[in-house]
Amino acid sequence: MGVLVSRKEDFARDDISDEALQNVMENILNQMEEAVQQGESLTSEYVVQLSQQLDIYVLIAQIRKMRCVS
Fold first, then answer.
1. Which of 15, 21, 33, 49 has the fewest CB atoms found within 10 Å of its own CB?
2. How far apart are CA 47 and CA 50, in angstroms?
3. Residue segments in the chain with a per-residue pLDDT below the cut of 70
């Protein structure tokens, strides 16, 4: 995956471009879709872990949007 965010203070860092952020989110969604197609349940540990990773990047995007609006 390559791009990791470790602390809340890092969530909206500018060194993660919008394009990289979108690519990471799409990658996670593709992994989730593939896992489900291979028979993983939505509550499996792997799918839940992917969902939690996606939540982090969605939060980054929301923080950035809020900064632009204010």
1. 15
2. 5
3. 1-15, 70
